[in-house]
Amino acid sequence: MKANFHTHTERCNHAGCSDQRYVDVAIEAGIEVLGFSDHTPYVGFDGDYYSFYRMRPDQLSDYVTSINSLKEQYSGKIEIHLGLEAEYYPKLFPGLLEFIKPYGIEYLILGQHFLDDDQHGLSAHWIKEESQLVKYTDQCIEALETGLFSYLAHPDLPNFDRSHLAFKREMRRLCEASNRLGLPVELNTLGILRERHYPCIEFLEVVAECDSTVIIGVDAHLPDQFTDTETAEKADELIRRFGLRTTETIALDRLEKYYATHT
Ligand SMILES: [Zn+2]
Ligand SMILES: [Zn+2]
Question: What residue spans of the chain are helical by DSSP H?
């Protein structure tokens, strides 16, 4: 693996180590392109939302300064990019775009951990009903259709019954939307490491059927994940088993283009 665009920092309160440590270990692991995509702050949400899930709005400036200075410091050794992992909340998303505008964020990845427009809304992890799964899929597709996200992280996040017909049907809708928009879908290796319900076989079967392009996302919450060859080998095995096509590049100019045309 030469590139990873899914990396967190300790600002989100559930990842560890210094920003620099992520860079050093990535270099040690042979990674040539490293994108930071910590959980974005969301303007309009209050205190308790920030305690475990994400950086606070007042931390964004420090995040940007730190990643940009590492970018300079390590120039020639590793290519570093500045991104954020964000949910798409339809009513709040314009405010997010406005808030992050001055910071020169290069890319967004979509991590739809919650639904609706509510910080206390349904957690996508705990989706059990078919109607909720459809809602998750609709919300993800609407997000991708903004043209501002570079890919959908852990598409198979909902902990919905994998044997239910609706699961593959909705995953197919996500893959087809990604194909139509020219975006890869993520194979999330944190899920493999933690033995979570994703990435799952049923999702990868759909990815193969749809011939979608896959990007491996380490979803690093600790730098050691970069040197975890056992997990990387398991991911490779899945890629080979399902004959998946992979990419190691994503669009990095979507926000820039958007801001250039929306003043
Ligand atoms: Zn996280
Ligand atoms: Zn993540």
Answer: 19-28, 60-73, 93-100, 130-145, 165-181, 189-193, 201-210, 229-242, 254-261
